[in-house]
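Archive entry. Fields below.
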Amino acid sequence: MDMNLKLKIWRQTNNKSEGHFEMYDVVANEHMSFLEMLDVLNEDLVNQRKQPVAFEHDCREGICGTCSLTINGQPHGPNAGTTACQLHMRFFKDGETITIEPFRAGAFPVVKDLVVDRSALDRVVQAGGFISVNAGQAQDGNAIPIEKERASQSFESAACIGCGACVAACPNGSAMLFTSAKVRHLGLLPQGEVEEEQRVQNMVAQMDKEGFGMCSNIGACEAECPKEIQLYNIAYMNRAYFKAVFSGEE
Amino acid sequence: MNWFIKFLSSSIGRKLIMSLTGLFLILFLTVHLIGNLQLFKDDGGQAFNVYAHFMTSNPLIKFIAYGNYFFILLHAFMGIYIASYNRKAKGQQPAVTNPNVRITWASKNMPILGGLILAFLLMHMGDFWLKMKLGNVNMVSYAGIEGEVKNLYERVAISFKELWVVIVYLVGLVALAFHLNHGFQSAFQTLGINHRKYTPLIKKLGLLYSLIVPIGFALMPIYYYFFR
Ligand code: HEM
Ligand code: SF4
Ligand code: FES
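PREDICTED_STRUCTURE:
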């Protein structure tokens, strides 16, 4: 079924200029994904020799964390556990007006239109979101035995795709959910555990340096996270941080 | 000590200060409420005055009381600092408010609720504590008790006959109820205490606490205004 939609989209030339909303009409189809609907709009705009709307996308299958739209006030839109690229138009009504904004957070400056610079998250990962190994031949998968339960718990946190929706959802612009997911993912595994003390301190320090806010335990992040990363990740990180600061080996 | 200052100025360190001072205040409020239940005794204020005398003269309790004032101020200033830092960290607000149900009114308005509590506390301390310290309170003596004690009970009874005082108390206590409604469980999460075994219990206790304690305090001015 075809759908006639009104789009209220944030347009901004670059991070120095003031942005504003513009209205567009688009005819979409209920089977399209949200990004395909924007592709249709952009095709129309190009045909009219107008600037297409800049938005980020890559995998379009919910695994890369590149898409970053605030749709009607919600990062990644209305569906729980879904990225914007995996959101289908059937969840909207014919004739609806949809407001599309970039992810809003002080640490995510707008680059253009709906594109924001999320490299602050990369720097948080660079500060410690890794394990130090000599990368040689790929290791035998089961060289280090890990119980199934433990592997699954770690994997829950590893599901974070680093999209930054948690930061955009947070009224404080905090990146605690993202950072804690990395800390728990690595800390629960034997390969990552050895470096946990350094990791958690370095990552928290970088997170603070980037100007992310301080978590008020509101839980907006957990509700908007497309990978359903839970608040207990933050509790895990706080515990690891206290332990590292007060009883870490020097 | 360098490491400790570095820790306290980190985001998690600051939140730890909020959590520990908040939990201390929760403990204090519990003791304060239980002690003040003596205001409901129909004995002309003897039990309450004797209790108040003990609380203001025992050196250990005096020490804890000054700690309490310090913690309130630390909690308030740190709370205001965090709130203003977070406003900047958020930057531009989205044009459409997030309809996310997890953003409760209380959790989003902790600094405003805290500000109301602080305003209330200033008025409350001015009315009782300051007047007591400045000696604007009559003395009484009771059989079987050595010397005179301050008649704080009389001061309470006079204050709670004023409608505006009762209203200020009720507003302050409603703010406290909302503040604790979010704050109680939040303090545990900040400490890293979150587990599916007991977090549901903590949340239930928090809800109960945030209702029982403010209602308990609210009954005092209401009782004195209407029934004394
Ligand atoms: C007796 C009175 C008070 C009690 C029992 C209390 C208790 C609490 C508790 C338990 C928390 C949660 C801490 C955490 O999340 O780790 C909290 C947070 C907070 N309190 Fe209070 N508080 C009181 C008074 C105040 C006052 C006077 C202010 C002054 C402005 C204030 C401002 C705040 C703020 C802004 C937060 C949120 C901090 C954050 O999570 O980012 N509170 N309070
Ligand atoms: S925690 Fe969730 S919302 Fe935050 S970056 Fe990871 S996947 Fe995105
Ligand atoms: S484009 Fe890769 S997650 Fe949406």
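CURATOR_NOTE: Residues 160 and 178 of chain B are 23 Å apart (CA to CA).
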